[in-house]
Amino acid sequence: MASLGNFIEVLSGGLLAGVLYSLVALGFVLIFKASGVFNFAQGSMVLLAGLALVRSLDFLVAHSMPFAVAVVGALLFASLVMAFTAWVIERFVLGPLVNQDGLILFMSTIGATFIIEGAAQLAFGSDVYPLKLYPTDAWFALQSLFPGGVLVNKLDVWGGLIAAFLVAGLAIFFQRTKTGRALRAVADDHAAAQSVGIPISWIWFVVWLVAGLVALVAATVWGTKLGVQFSITFLALKALPVLIIGGLTSVPGAIVGGLIVGAGEKLAEAYLGPLIGGGIEYWFAFVLALAVLLVRPQGVFGERIIERI
Amino acid sequence: MRTGVDKPNDTSGTIAPGEVLLAVEHVVLSFGGVKAIRDVSFDIRKGEVRAIIGPNGAGKTSMLNVINGFYHPQTGTITYKGDPRQRMRPYIAATQGIARTFQNVALFKGMSTLDNIMAGRTLKMSNSLFSQAFYWGSALKQEIEHREVVEKIIDFLEIQAIRKTPVGKLPYGLQKRVELGRALATEPELLLLDEPMAGMNLEEKQDMSRFIIDINQQLGTTMALIEHDMGVVMDLSDRVAVLEYGQLIADGTPDEVQKNQRVIDAYLGVSH
Amino acid sequence: MLYRENGQYKTSYAADAAIFPIRQDKIAVGLLLLFAFAGVPLLAIMGVGPFGHDYIFKALLIPFLILALAAIGLNILVGYCGQISLGAGAFMAVGAYSAYNFALRIPELPLVISILLGGGVAALVGILFGIPSLRIKGLYLAVATLAAQFFFDWLFIRVKWFTNYTPSGSVNAPKLEFFGSILDSPTERYLLTLSFVAALALLAKNLTRSMVGRQWMAIRDMDIAAEIIGIRPLYAKLTAFAISSFIIGVAGALWAFVHLGSWEPLAFNIDRSFQLLFMVIIGGLGSIMGSFLGAAFILILPIMLDQLPRALGLHVSVETVSHLVSIITGTLICYLLIVEPHGFARLWGLVKEKMRLWPYPY
Which one of A75, A206, B139, C281 has the lowest number of neighbouring Cβ atoms within 10 Å? Predict the structure, then answer.
């Protein structure tokens, strides 16, 4: 019974960690679904949002604002920063590159990643900044079933709730609204969308702004868990296997992918790790993604790519 | 005008001019619910120029793609050089002497004209990576040998001036010529041309027609071409197959087809 | 006026297909090589100017040459064959650790052979990780290459056999023994590196203008059409991975043996992979010369950003420099992708075009 409890603990910890990955992956999916661009810079956007948030929060608190007000102020400030970033990216990077093929756009987002990382740290500093926006204490669940209960972190639970809320909202947005449809049109074919009068510049600005806000939400959860610091961008790389497994265009896929990656990682570490020396978490997600791609080159939920000639 | 390219070896050995080189029988091709080709059968005889015509969406390009091996039919047989098979593969088609040009010009945009046509010689070249790395011995010898062949093709197609130009920079008409050159470089027995005249002005069409005739008469290459220009079709082709909505509605000489009422209806748009 | 090719007629296809068909280019490159091989060591011995100090060799010339070599390798895969790879650092590591183990466990092997064998192992691993590229394309492939990067990061830390069970995890390079004498001075190391790089660059250039190079570019430009003229994607992609990984592996071994001396797996982590990718993009995709230009730029940029403020009397922290490097590199990549996707190599080509016409405007 103890080992089952142990399993559930590892599993639930993994699932909830996976939700964190999903939060970052959602930003990717958003941008890809709406513009066909694979935004490598999403991780750096989480960093930027987090730094803007935590530094302004500390600043406001240091100037004796009550915490709740400071939080609102900081969130507003961070949102403005993300809006500004969205505008800059649309105007100077994506706009000039519209109608170029996907790989060029992808590489430009790699360039954007480095600009954002450098600029964020130059502007806001490169230390580790602790953040506490959610309860982070432990909670012992299911104490009646398992002696001592299953250890669950409240922060992870909050993360799960937020992710669920975001997914529902985004799914409705894409399927039911006019803007959502326009976004899907743009993703399919820039030139065609322009030719039917869809204002691409505005659409892209909106998309990157929303992705920036999703990054901000992710930053609140991650920042609380790990402190806002540069290495967050590294963890954001883990969102890539999530996208592979969940598919680049599926919002629910991002969640499912995140759960699979998170749970898979932690379980592999706990059960396979001791056999081969530990530290498997480092690469497991990526090798898993590779394995999935070998079987289904478009990911689990992705759309089949049919090449015409 | 001779190009100096050797006539390709007949691997089957038994197909004489006038006999059937390629036959498709009862081919059905569908994509999900859409039936692109419904039970089409026709053949192509060695040495002839076969036109495939029909209104847009009739399944002509799909038919070429089936012959080529890009699409695999749900049912039907493709018999090439007496060898029947369920499906063709692009690589096998290439090794057995089927070459192709495309409606939307599938050239290698990052390479020059010369390199594109040289790429067509791939199957005729064989040497080790080692000798290529040192650019000596058999690699150097073959580079020059095949360069000579390619230059003859370039002369034939009158594209000497653009041999070093990256093809992405060429106007559409010249790109189509380069693509033809690349197909010729493979020394094909059967050359499939998908709308070779599309987008060309009168002079370019005259040049292209001249090339097609020369290729057919001097090299003996069997050709199948999809074309919309009726004048070209009537002048160049020996036999014509007419497709409409995925079905074969006429098959015969240009004169016969021209007088066929169903064909006239199809083009004038009589509702069915 | 200086750069016209008037009067230079080619009378054979071999002459037309030469690497430097224009006579002025031949002369320029010849002089450059002469200077590199003979001039620089001479200046070093005489102690003239910057060549009298070790710094220019250790901090500039040697790393430049080795990284340029790695960039050539990556360019073959990304620029010529169109397969995105974010795992170049891992292949440098494979080359370095393989060469190390060969040199360590078979001490009779000459140094050059150990290094080449290191490249060979990297090539085999490259083929293995290249197999997925047959089914996986574009950015999916990029993520797959990250699997290689992280896996090898982990492997060389955890599996102690590779590092000969050293307690710290870092290893020391074997002595650079070349035909009996130990290559110790920076000048000697520079010449060893230069020889490797010049030789491999030539081989790479030859491959790109041969049949296999055309196959790579065909796959890059339109892999579906490539099959129809008889190019096998399997052969083309796997040879690209193999050759690319071989060159990157040799570069890795050189980096470890000649430049670093002692190293740990972090030397080849994902930052290195991105650095190489940037060199390739900035220098020019699909250009051997571009790889040199890109490597020079990426190497010199942080040094310039460090020295320039200092010369002006401003104090700039190391961190600030690294952030500025990030920003400038990123901006340059975006700018080049918008304005000139073929990087510095194409810009250089445009300069040469202008020189051909000078002093006439067109």
Answer: A206
- Considering only CB atoms, B91 lies closest to which of C222, C227, C243, namely C227
Chain B residue with minimal CA distance to A308?
A: B70
- Name the stretches of chain A with pLDDT < 70: 1-2, 99, 101-102, 141-150, 299, 301-309
CB-CB neighbors (< 8 A) of A299 in chain C: 140
**How close, in Å, is residue C167 to chain B by CA atoms?**
42
DSSP B70: S
Residues B92 and B195 in one domain: yes
The pLDDT value given to residue C76: 95
CA angle B29, B32, B36 (to 5 degrees): 35
Are B38 and B164 part of one and the same domain? no
In angstroms, the CA A276 to CA A269 distance is: 10
Same domain, B112 and B177: yes
Q: Which residues in chain B are contacts of C17 at CB distance < 8 A? A: 143-144, 147
Helices A102-124 & A42-62 angle (0-180, nearest 10): 20
Say yes or no for a CB contact (<8 Å) between C329 and A111.
yes
Nearest residue, CB atoms, C147 vs list A110, A289, A305? A289
pTM: 0.88
The conformation of residue B166, written as its DSSP 8-state character, comes to: B
Residue type, A226: L
Chain length of chain C: 362
Task: List chains touching A (3+ CB pairs under 8 A).
Answer: B, C
Q: Where are the domains of chain A?
A: 22-231
Chain C residue with the nearest C-alpha to that of A115: C327
Distance in angstroms (rounded) separating the CA atoms of residues B64 and A70: 68
Residue B102 placed within a domain:
no
Asked whether residue B32 is domain-assigned, the answer is yes
pLDDT along chain C (362 residues), means of 10: 67 77 80 85 78 79 95 94 90 94 88 94 93 80 87 88 82 80 83 93 93 93 88 92 96 93 87 92 88 92 82 79 88 85 78 76 70
Q: List CB contacts (< 8 A) between A279 and chain C.
A: 154, 157-158
Q: Say yes or no: B93 and B227 in one domain.
A: yes
Residue where the block lists tokens 């810009």? C347
Mutation for C interface: B88, B103, B104, B132, most C CBs within 10 A: B132
The boundaries of the domain holding residue B270 are: 1-97+189-272
Interface check for A38 against chain C (CB to CB < 8 A): the answer is yes
d(CA A84, CA C146): 31
Average pLDDT over every residue of B231-235 = 87
Final residue before a domain boundary, out of B162, B186, B210: B186
The verdict on B73 and B150 lying in the same domain is no
Sign of the C-alpha dihedral computed for residues C141, C147, C153 and C155 taken in this order: negative
CATH number of C53-357: 1.10.3470
